[in-house]
Design brief:
The chain is an alpha/beta fold and about 350 residues long. The protein is built from twelve helices and twelve strands.
Length: about 350
């Protein structure tokens, strides 16, 4: 209930419905009330305390929607996951869940809410619609999928946008991501060092990040010289589809002794498919994944993986976006991946 007030006192009457009514009761301007309640701007401590006390007595809570309209912001950031390459993939994918949770935490630290969208593109205007909706102050895109041209076109007219993924030369949008080519080399060189000579790469090279990992894989195979072979198996990120494809491949593949999977999820499906066919990891086939998610520690055997520091990546995504929102220069960020060896590639690792 509203506080009891003395007739004729400044606090008498109904609870103020907006900042203008509170300003009238306090006998000050709306700008003064706004500064007092938000802590922004210059104001004497006595005036600030008086207005804050009055607002508390009247149980007045300012409308954040109205405030955001006045200052031209929504208080929300769009976090968008485009799935042009893999239309049945879900946000429950461990990689998405891990990176999005890090991003949401960093945005919350800066006072922003998250507007999360999973987009299966049907035309080239999907990103423009989000940017022009008036619902977000900026956009973080998780993965380029096969939408690099759409991202590039949007970036020409919409500045506060940053993309998680590989830097593509000549494109206008800002990126934060790992050196996927280096990661591919590290994984393959590790398998070669463990004695593998007939290697396979499992992943969808239509995705720019995976294509870079495949390039690193091929570079390491070529550098190894004669007696080493490498094959490519296109594999979906969706677990059930990946398992079916891998199982079929293992039924006809002869002598593969080292597998580099483009993600930890694909690597998990690889270990399962090998077990179902009676092939032991790592004694018969060694397996390396990519991402080094929490699940990599809990596979049987624990999964060797190329580590992307997603916590650091999320921080860089948010910092880059906030700089762009302030109209500051913000270079793209390239993170250095590292190898985390575990038992899936070497006994006792």
């Amino acid at each position: 209930m509203p506080p009891k007030t003395r007739p004729g006192s400044k606090t008498a009457g109904a609870r103020p419905q907006n900042i203008q009514e509170l300003a009238k009761i306090a006998g000050v301007s709306t700008a003064t009330v706004s500064r007092a309640l938000t802590g922004a701007g210059h104001l004497s401590s006595a005036t600030r305390e008086r207005i804050q006390k009055l607002a508390a007595e009247l149980q007045f809570k300012p409308s954040m929607t109205a405030r955001n309209l006045r200052i031209g912001r929504t208080g929300a950031i769009g976090v968008v996951v485009p799935l042009g390459h893999e239309r049945t993939q879900h946000l429950s994918d461990p990689f998405f869940m891990t990176l999005i949770s890090h991003v949401a935490d960093r945005l919350a630290d800066h006072g922003y809410d998250v507007l999360l969208s999973r987009v299966v593109p049907t035309d080239g205007n999907w990103l423009d619609r989000i940017a022009q909706s008036g619902r977000v102050d900026g956009i973080i895109v998780i993965g380029q999928s096969d939408q690099a041209l759409v991202l590039d076109e949007a970036a020409k007219s919409y500045r506060p946008m940053v993309v998680w993924g590989s830097r593509i030369e000549g494109h206008a949008y800002h990126t934060v991501g790992s050196d996927n080519r280096l990661g591919g080399r590290l994984a393959t060189e590790h398998l070669l060092a463990q004695g593998c000579r007939k290697l396979a790469f499992f992943g969808d090279s239509n995705v720019p990040e995976v294509e870079e990992r495949l390039t690193g894989f091929r570079e390491a195979i070529k550098a190894a010289g004669e007696g080493v072979a490498g094959a490519l198996l296109p594999v979906h990120f969706v677990p059930d589809m990946a398992l079916a494809t891998i199982s079929e491949y293992l039924g006809v593949a002869d002598g593969v002794d080292g597998i580099f999977a483009a993600s930890d999820t694909i690597a998990m499906m690889t270990i399962q498919a090998l077990a179902e066919r009676g092939r032991a990891v790592p004694s018969d086939v060694k397996v390396v994944g990519f991402d080094d998610l929490e699940i990599a520690r809990h596979t049987l055997p624990p999964l060797t993986s190329i580590r992307q520091d997603l916590g650091k990546g999320a921080e860089a995504l948010v910092d880059t976006l906030l700089a762009l929102m302030r109209d500051e220069d913000a270079p793209s960020v390239l993170l250095t991946p590292t190898l985390t060896p575990r038992a899936s590639s070497a006994p006792g690792a």
